[in-house]
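The instructor's notes for this session suggest beginning with a concrete chain rather than abstract definitions. Hand out the sequence below and ask the class to guess, before any prediction is shown, which regions might be ordered.
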Amino acid sequence: MAENYAKNIVIGFARINGKTVGVVGNQPNVLAGVLDIKSSIKGARFVRFCDCFNIPLLTLVDVPGFLPGVDQELNGIILHGAKLLYAYCEATVPRVTVITRKAYGGAYDVMSSKHLRGDINLAFPTAEIAVMGPDGAVNIVNKEKSKMLMIQ
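After discussion, reveal the predicted structure:
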């Protein structure tokens, strides 16, 4: 569904034990799977559609964050990201979330995180759930240490 629009998020239907489920997943081969304005809108519309027709949701998470940039900010990434967040929050259908690799920052929360009280949240043993990636965290820590050394 909508395979040529916002390719960094994949939506569709599957059957599990003969029951239809809606599937939402990040596509790490396109823009590393980040959430941007278009993917947030696409995901939110699909989640609401599934909720309207009482179709349970399976969310496969591999998200490094939101797409940074002035263009995204000026066009309302926060507003559109919130649409996806609200869609998951307001969904009354059963929700299962599986973290396959990365789940970083606010984008993790938006993608049906455990904080949104889904029915079940699972993670692969190698999954990384954090505020930011390890490289970014190391850079911040080292930057702070450098500032401290310069002050002394």
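Then share the key points. The chain has one domain: 9-151. DSSP finds five helices and six strands in the chain.
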